[in-house]
Amino acid sequence: MGLISTAAVGVAALALLTPGVAAQSAGQCSGVTGRYQPRMGAGYKYSVLATGLRQPRHIAIDSAGNLLVAEGGAQSVRRIVLRDQGDIVCAQSNSQLSGTNTNHGLALSADGKTLFTSNLASVFAHTYDASTGAIGASKQIITGMSNTGTHPTRAITTSRFSPDTILVARGSNGNIDTATTQQSTGRSMIKTFSISKGMQTVHQYSSGGEVLAWGLRNIVGLRENPVDGGIWSVENQMDDLRLNSRDIHNDNPAERLSYHGQLNATTNRYKGLNYGYPSCVPAWDPANVGVSNLVVGSLFKPDGVPNANDCANRMTGRLHFHAHTAPLDIEFNANATQAYIAFHGSWNRNPAQGFRVMRVDFKDGQPVADVSSRTAQIPVMENTGNCPNSCFRPVGLAFDAKGRLYVSSDTSGEIYVIYGAQ
């Protein structure tokens, strides 16, 4: 299917769906039919906003309430003008923002006047007018991030509490990147950079900026808590794990939600901490690891990694998730009592796991659940089809001012809207 029309899109009256879905669907926009019918958690409904997009990845709501979508398949950004129609929101028009360059990353400055994008090698800045969609020439502000192996995406986010700061994550050069035991590689880490300095002289990723956290295999989603300014990341951990020549990869290691402190804090005790990769990985199913005294999240040394005698002294995540579920984004509601996480789903597991949006409850800036919990995730939006081949695979998340949560699905080329997420 091609890109959705740039002409105005109307909306029909709420459609009656099959009995099992009617209670979960909020209705549909005219001419927009989703490929799948998600199963929704208690209190949530959904609608399909757009179809036919080219691998939509990270998304954002601009200061005028429009939806910006990084289309990985088009290496550019699409702007969708939104319009309320009864109980749902629909696309009034959409257009491609010329001159943008991204395969995944997308962020807006604190004042909404600068659009940042990222690709394999670089981060770019563009002046941006949310009311008209006018965009200025591309300005490279960070470069030197190309990998020869895997993990081509560069997650980026900006800070409301430290407006001159942009955070950029760069993943490993392979499943086990032994060189990342040294910070000098500039891989498997999150760095912070000055936006204003980057506009004057391009930052080199490896030698520039400041290390916020390292020993993180592949961070694909970054977000600032909108209430206290705390920085959070979601990480994709190691594949094909073995320990003492025994295959334990189906349920280990855990994916992670990690906390990195507040950028504007006088002293941030989390700044610069090492999270263990590539030498130490977190357990999801401790019983299957075969190492005594492990709990969920405990770090251990698998086969084929650099020597490690200090896993107990490395930082682990604040929460952990099932192996290979591939969390790709995290988004907070307005009062930061809930964090939503998009799990893209597994390829390195049988049967497959993930392919859903889940919620984690927060209080006073931290998850309510204990670090070793296996039940911290609350279902929001799940597949009913055959994954990974015949289902939606969520990537990007963004809230609008009315508390509606937008979700991109790259493999199906769709944008969903979740209602009740506030």
Q: Secondary-structure map with pairings?
A:
Layout: H1 19-22, E1 39-40, E2 45-50, E3 56-61, E4 67-71, E5 76-85, E6 88-97, E7 106-108, E8 114-118, E9 123-127, E10 139-143, E11 156-158, E12 165-170, E13 189-194, H2 195-200, E14 203-204, E15 210-214, E16 219-224, E17 230-235, E18 242-243, E19 246-247, E20 255-262, E21 273-274, E22 281-282, H3 286-289, E23 299-300, E24 319-321, E25 327-332, E26 338-343, E27 356-363, E28 366-367, E29 378-382, E30 394-399, E31 405-409, E32 414-419
Parallel strand pairs: 10-14, 15-21
Antiparallel strand pairs: 1-29, 2-32, 3-4, 4-5, 5-6, 7-8, 8-9, 9-10, 11-12, 12-13, 13-15, 16-17, 17-20, 18-19, 20-24, 22-23, 25-26, 26-27, 27-28, 27-29, 30-31, 31-32
Give a description of the structure:
By secondary structure, the protein is mainly beta. The chain has helices at 19-22, 195-200, 286-289, and strands spanning 39-40, 45-50, 56-61, 67-71, 76-85, 88-97, 106-108, 114-118, 123-127, 139-143, 156-158, 165-170, 189-194, 203-204, 210-214, 219-224, 230-235, 242-243, 246-247, 255-262, 273-274, 281-282, 299-300, 319-321, 327-332, 338-343, 356-363, 366-367, 378-382, 394-399, 405-409, 414-419. Strands 1, 25, 26, 27, 28 and 29 form a six-stranded antiparallel β-sheet that branches. A five-stranded mixed β-sheet has the order 7-8-9-10-14. Strand 7 and strand 8 form a beta hairpin. The chain is globular, with a radius of gyration of 21 Å.
